[in-house]
Specification:
Length: 992
């Protein structure tokens, strides 16, 4: 019998309040809303047992429940129930199921299950079609079902219908389909692009195999004397995808014969490491799931960041939670297993106020999600993934631009911690051995994530498959993560470990098999979420929370027993070999048999050519605003400058008790650029994390865009107490239309900057990732074709170590009468700046200028070395490095954070001679600058250190909480109380 438990909140019903506030902001006239939690239990229990279950799932003080009954006295117009579609991961239901199993000492059978849904009672002046619209507004129809009933129907039916969302797949006569490659070239190209066809003529989903790739596959199987099976073709597509192989970065491109990765990114690191010699901080770079540097004499720290752009465009929550738990597994998969200790995020989305609909199909039935919906979803996804995993999230950012409307960029990253040695051997070395058993650890396999890797290698179109969406389970992952790093790793129970990410088992097993030379897998041994899943889907599914391990046969029983005691499924699915082949069997039938060399290295290397025609833009012609006070307030309200504390406070950054500098700072609760984490109570050493990007600069010059991102990521870390001597970088390229020569020319220019500036700063890259096709191809509300391409975007992350966290410097002004200094010269560099974009919105023009900020690395290094000396002498009380928006918003943030006033004289600023406007000086985004405050008694020592570089005392901190700015002419141009600045800074997302 199927049972239904409804849980009603009697007091402190926050969820209902949030829902009502959300609905009141819509077109609908809603007067009340109530949220009810629903658990559908597909298993026989008696009334006594069901009561006990309901008590476990509810709060006895604030909640009540109904069992197999319905609410007879509720006052509402329509009831709307939202639940997951069949096969979609339901994390809360899984936890509830485990709770029931633990309480009753039972196990659910395969056909028994628990499911959750949300029931909402809505009252207002609405019709049934309005209720349907509300349901569609609140749900994502890719992964959720919506069920609406009027009050009359609800009463007549005695409640909502009891629905058990079960996946029902047809059984197949044969395990695999042979794919005929002896067809015309045109048919082959279509197969490589659109994918294998089902019996009904529909496509299984994209293979993303370019012409030369599908022809190489045809030649290979011709030599084998046969056609490939579907699983073989699907496996090659996953393995050769741009997402996995980074073919553009590996390709010969113009004069760069080795490719952008080898001859720019990796080359920079190799040269830096060689130059540093014994002072090299790198340990393992570019060859594992994460990169690692030395933390101290006993420990290493790792770093990795990923993007989950395409999945987040379809299902923001699922895309983001999958991203964050996936990059946690990248950390766990480093060496013999690093412990995830810091989560990071970055959300690049469209203009949050843009509500103009766009569609994926010409019939206008498949609506794309709007930026606000995407942002809310990804915030929730990273929240669920990080908070439920018990990993602090002290670092992150949001960035808004209309180019991210079609496809957002969702960055997620994790820093890990691992001993240098484990059982007397280097922790970062691992190797699967022939004879080791292949063990899959974690969740069961389903259809979720099919074609995830190939899907992410293409633009987002109406053909994009729903099956590419998956949802991670942080609770399951937390259990096996702890079991690995706290128990199995130190007991030496396995030889190698890696993440099941893009491509699922097809990539993880095959990648590990490179270590020993081969593998043999038995698909029927893999635990499935539901029966009749086709073999090729089992092999390529990206169902989440899974790892693959190589375990010596004599240790398998002990490992599986350990995982069973921790409530984690561990299954032997095959054996690593030295056969030189990747063999997959199903029911003793060999359905895949490919040489390892061809699987990994058989794809033809691309040869690319580029062009790069830089555009010259009109310079803005607007007059200097008469009211610069209002201009500053407006700038503080801008989406790329304003407070996003509503995100920061959702993310637990204190969970492991390691935070030194968190996501917000000071009495004014201002968002920080940089975090410091102290991983051990017994040491003063801390980990510094920061990041930077400047996408709008790419419209002028991608070389300088990249240089500015590098300089800012480094400078942010220096500002809080970091040092160039113990700092590494990570690059994440997100590009668009990467088959176009102009876009490739922009990419090449940015990669050259990455090489040159990393070498100059001697900051090596230790890891990175690229996502090359972030385009949306769809239709506007009138059915006209549109293409929205993201701005070429490069995120640079910095990872550093501070020897003594007690020397760390925060942004907030500390004491009245402290002196304020500007370190570094300000230039007329407002090209593509936030200020010019602000003015263009006012005047409805597109004059972004040409003076993009340029970085002089030699001068910057001199500044940073002197700054490090001042930090070491404890001369700096507060510091902030200006970035987006420039000097004045940064100064305002310092004042808001400290809740203290300032008096500033702009005529004392070290400036380039061609700046003759106060507004340009206030909002120039010139790089390599710091705004610092110092104790007056340290004035002589401080100025002696900085002698020889551009710096000046420009003002002082005041007890009077006023923000007072004197312009170049000597007149007061801004005088405003700090509270008003704070209100402007927090206004934009105040009601979120």
């Amino acid at each position: 019998m199927t049972n239904r438990i409804e849980i009603y909140t009697k007091v402190n019903d926050t969820r209902s309040e949030v829902l009502l506030n959300k609905l009141k902001k819509t077109e609908f006239k809603i007067t009340s809303a109530k949220v009810v939690e629903v658990y559908t239990i597909n298993k026989d229990f008696n009334n006594h047992e069901l009561t006990k279950i309901a008590q476990m799932l509810s709060n006895p003080i604030s909640q009540s429940f109904l069992i197999n009954d319905y609410a007879k006295g509720e006052d509402f117009s329509f009831a709307i129930e939202i639940g997951y579609l069949p096969g979609v991961t339901d994390n809360i239901a899984q936890t509830a199921k485990e709770t029931i199993e633990d309480a009753f000492k039972i196990k659910f059978a395969d056909e028994e299950s628990v499911h959750t849904s949300t029931l909402m009672f809505i009252k207002g002046e609405i019709a049934e079609q309005d209720a349907e619209k509300i349901g569609n507004m609140l749900a994502n129809n890719l992964i959720q079902r919506i069920h609406v009933k009027s009050h009359e129907s609800f009463a007549g039916d005695k409640g909502m219908d009891v629905i058990v969302p079960k996946v029902k797949l047809k059984s197949h006569e044969k395990a695999v389909d042979e794919i005929n490659l002896d067809v015309s070239k045109e048919e082959l190209i279509r197969l490589g692009r659109e994918g294998i066809l089902n019996a009904d003529g529909t496509s299984r989903g994209p293979l993303a195999l370019e012409e030369e790739y599908i022809l190489a596959i045809k030649d290979y199987f011709k030599k084998q004397g046969r056609n490939p099976n579907d699983i073989e073709l699907e496996s090659l597509a996953q393995t050769w995808s741009e997402h996995c192989k980074h073919t553009i970065f590996a390709a010969e491109i113009d004069e760069i014969k080795g490719g952008l990765f080898k001859d720019c990114i990796r080359k920079a690191t190799e040269e830096i490491r060689k130059k540093k010699g014994k002072k090299d901080i790198c340990v393992s770079v570019f060859k594992d799931n994460s990169g690692a540097i030395i933390f101290d004499e006993n420990w290493l720290i790792t770093d990795k960041a990923e993007t989950h752009n395409t999945p987040s465009a379809l299902d923001p929550f699922g895309g983001a939670i999958t991203g964050i738990v996936g990059v946690n597994r990248d950390t766990l998969g480093f060496g013999l297993g690093a412990k995830p200790i810091i989560n990071k995020y970055g959300f690049c989305v469209g203009d949050i106020d843009d509500e103009e609909e766009i569609f994926r199909d010409k019939k206008l039935t498949n609506k794309a999600l709007l930026p606000k919906r995407i942002l809310n979803g990804v915030i929730d996804g990273v929240n669920a993934g990080g908070n439920q995993s018990g990993i602090p999230t002290p670092q992150g950012f949001v960035y808004f631009n209309k180019s991210y409307k079609g496809k957002p960029l969702i960055f997620v990253g994790t820093v890990g911690l691992i001993p240098k040695e484990i059982n007397g051997k280097p922790s970062y070395e691992k190797c699967a051995m022939a004879g080791d058993k292949i063990v899959m650890l974690g969740g069961k396999v389903g259809q979720d994530g099919i074609h995830g890797a190939t899907f992410s290698s293409e633009a987002l179109t109406e053909e994009s498959p729903i099956s590419a969406v998956q949802i991670g389970d942080p609770i399951t992952q937390k259990k096996f993560s702890d079991a690995i790093v706290k128990e199995a790793r130190d007991q030496n129970l396995y030889n190698s470990i890696t993440d099941n990410g893009a491509g699922g088992l097809s990539c993880s097993v095959a990648e590990m098999a490179k270590e020993c030379g081969g593998c043999e897998v038995e698909l029927e041994k893999i635990p499935l979420k539901y029966p009749n899943l086709e073999p090729w889907k089992i092999w390529t599914s990206e169902s989440q929370e899974r790892m693959t391990l190589a375990i010596p046969e004599e240790k398998v029983e002990k490992f599986i027993s350990l995982m069973e005691r921790r409530g984690v499924i561990a299954t032997v699915i095959g054996t690593f070999t030295d056969s030189g082949r990747c063999i997959v069997k199903h029911q003793n039938e060999k359905i895949m048999d490919i040489e390892m060399d061809f699987l990994h290295d058989g794809l033809p290397k691309k040869t690319l050519t580029t062009s790069y025609t830089k555009t010259t833009y009109n310079e803005p012609t607007f007059e200097e605003p008469a009211d610069l006070t209002q201009t500053l307030l407006d700038m503080l309200e801008r989406q790329n400058i304003t407070s996003y504390g509503f995100i920061s406070h959702q993310y637990d950054h204190n969970v492991q008790g390691t935070a030194v500098i968190g996501p917000v700072c000071g009495r004014g609760d201002v968002n920080t650029n940089t975090s410091i984490t102290k991983p051990f109570l017994g040491t003063k050493k801390g980990i510094i994390c920061s990041q930077a990007l400047y996408p709008t600069y790419a419209e002028i010059d991608t070389y300088h865009m990249a240089a500015c991102a590098i300089d800012t990521a480094i400078r942010n870390a220096i500002a809080v107490g970091g040092t160039l001597d113990h700092m590494a970088l990570m690059d994440n390229f997100c590009w668009c239309s990467s088959t176009e020569k102009e876009r490739l020319g922009q990419l090449k220019s940015a990669a050259n900057a990455c090489y040159e500036y990393a070498v100059k700063y001697e900051t090596p890259y230790i890891s990175g990732k690229d996502s090359m096709f972030n385009d949306f191809k769809g239709f506007d509300k009138n059915g006209n074709p549109i293409k929205i391409s993201v701005l070429p975007t490069l995120l640079i992350s910095s990872l550093g170590v501070i020897d003594d966290v007690e020397n760390a410097v925060t942004m907030d002004l500390k004491f009245a009468e402290d002196l304020i200094y500007m370190i570094g010269e300000t230039k007329n560099e407002l090209g593509a700046s936030e200020y010019f974009n602000y003015q263009n919105e006012i005047f409805k023009e597109i004059n972004i200028g040409n003076n993009v900020p340029k970085v002089d690395a030699e001068k910057s290094i001199n500044i940073y070395r002197k700054y490090e000396e001042a930090i070491n002498q404890k001369l700096i009380a507060s510091s902030l490095s200006p970035s987006i928006g420039g000097f004045m918003p940064a100064l305002a943030k310092k004042a808001i954070a400290g809740n203290l006033g300032v008096k500033i004289d702009l005529s004392k600023m070290p400036i380039e001679k061609d700046i003759n406007r106060d507004d340009f000086l206030m909002f120039s985004e010139t790089q390599s600058r710091f705004i610092v405050s110092i104790n007056p008694k340290n004035k002589e020592k401080f100025e002696k250190i900085f002698n020889g570089i551009p710096f000046a005392q420009i003002g002082e901190v005041t007890e009077e909480k006023m923000f007072q700015i004197t312009g170049l002419s000597g007149k007061t141009i801004i005088k405003k109380d700090i509270q008003s600045l704070e209100e402007a800074y927090k206004k934009t997302f105040k009601d979120w």
